Amino acid sequence: MAKRESKLAGKIPIDMTAMIDVVFQLLTFFMLTLKSVVVEGDFNIRMPLGASAGAAEENPIPPLILKMSADASGRLTGVQMGGKSIVGQDLLGELGSADALLDQAMAAGAGNQAAMKQARRAKELTAQKLTAALQAQIVDTFGNDLSRAELTELELDCDPGLKYDHVVSAITAASGILKGDEVVPLIQKIKFAPPKKQK
Amino acid sequence: MSRKRKNIGGVDIDMTPMIDVTFQLITFFMFTLNFTEAEQDQRIQLPTSQVAKPVENSDIEPLTLQLMDDGRVIYNGEPVALAALGDYLENEKAVMLAASKEPSAATVVVRADGRSRTGDVQQIIRSCQEKGFDKFTLRAEYKGP
């Protein structure tokens, strides 16, 4: 009697253990993959077709035009605001080398994760530098009166070949100032200039 | 024999709630995983930004267009040529009009790769404008300070 019971008691938990192991591994897998989801954010732009002429009349403050030029490979070669160049050559060089580093890492493929991570990190840091440089200039144009920024419209006039992340850096710089954890809103109306014919 | 049955039953009752809960958790995580994978395509590496606003969920389903760095657009999970996007947008517009909504009520979410050409992003916006969509949001990866 005692023998039979002990056999039974030993057998059933072993059956369960395997299943529970598998189930918990699945649970762990799904939990970890869920965490890798990145947080995303939005920039709103409103661009009805052909409405730009009407909008210019009702807005007394002229739009701020940011002209971003690029070379054949899409690297940023200059940023101009009001006809004056506002980003130094050394920063442009840094941006260019960060771009080249990322291109290399992408060409090497997914095999070299460490290089890819490093390249993306370098890219992020230079992008933040560009944002800071642009923001200083944009804030400068408003002087002490930051409330004017909300009425101002930003027009981005970019070369078609320009790499898109530089545009996002510029939009970041224009749309808000980061103070601690809070974001002080700056220019809210952002649009692209009508595209130029490609050469 | 009857005692054996009782014994099995006793063990089962102990485990059932835990296994129920665990399976429900697994189901939950599986569903959320599928959902985010459809939206956040791994072929796109978004540019990073520190001040991007949190994503707002509107009641009307947004139209998501994802631009890869080679200039193709992912529409409904399939890469299509940028030049052919107009036809797909025409369908999208027809669907919206059939549901008696104006295309301008929907937001177009542009998820473009950081290495793609700005001209392509502008081309997407232009194609959408021609079909009557005029609310756009550019998506970026949020990197907190």
What order do the strands of the largest sheet of chain A run in, or round the barrel if closed? 4-3-2-5-8
In the CATH scheme, what's the topology name of the largest domain in chain B?
A: Alpha-Beta Plaits
Kindly provide the radius of gyration of chain A, computed on alpha-carbon positions and rounded to a whole number of angstroms: 27 Å
Biggest sheet statistics of chain B? 6 strands, mixed
Q: Which series of helices and strands of chain A comes N to C?
A: HEHEEEHHEHEEE
Instruction: Output the number of helix runs of chain A.
Output: 5
Might you state the CATH topology name of the largest domain in chain A?
A: Nucleotidyltransferase, domain 5
N-to-C CA distance of chain B: 68 Å
- pLDDT averaged over residues of chain B: 81
Question: Helix fraction of chain A?
Answer: 40-55%
Cα-to-Cα separation, first versus last residue of chain A: 93 Å
- Order of strands across the main sheet of chain B: 1-7-6-3-4-5
Report the C-alpha radius of gyration of chain B, rounded: 23 Å
List how many beta strands of chain B DSSP finds: 7
Question: How would you characterize the overall build of this protein?
Answer:
The complex is a heterodimer of chains A (199) and B (145). Chain A is an alpha/beta fold. Chain A folds into 2 domains: 36 residues; 130 residues, 2-Layer Sandwich (Nucleotidyltransferase, domain 5), CATH 3.30.420. Chain A is 52% helix and 20% strand. In chain A, the strands form 2 sheets. In chain A, strands 4-3-2-5-8 form a 5-stranded mixed beta sheet. In chain A, strands 6-7 form a two-stranded antiparallel ribbon. In chain A, helix 3 packs antiparallel against helix 4 and helix 4 packs across helix 5. Chain A starts with a helix and ends in a 7-residue tail after the last strand. Chain B has 145 residues and is an alpha/beta fold. Chain B folds into 2 domains: 39 residues; 95 residues, 2-Layer Sandwich (Alpha-Beta Plaits). Chain B has 3 helices and 7 strands; from the N terminus they run H-E-E-E-E-E-H-E-H-E. A 6-stranded mixed beta sheet of chain B has the order 1-7-6-3-4-5, with helices on one face. Chain B is globular, with a radius of gyration of 23 Å. In chain B, 34% of the residues are buried. The N terminus of chain B is likely disordered. At the A-B interface, helix 1, strand 1, helix 3, helix 4 and helix 5 of A face helix 1, strand 1, strand 2, helix 3 and strand 7 of B. Strand 1 of chain A pairs antiparallel with strand 2 of chain B.
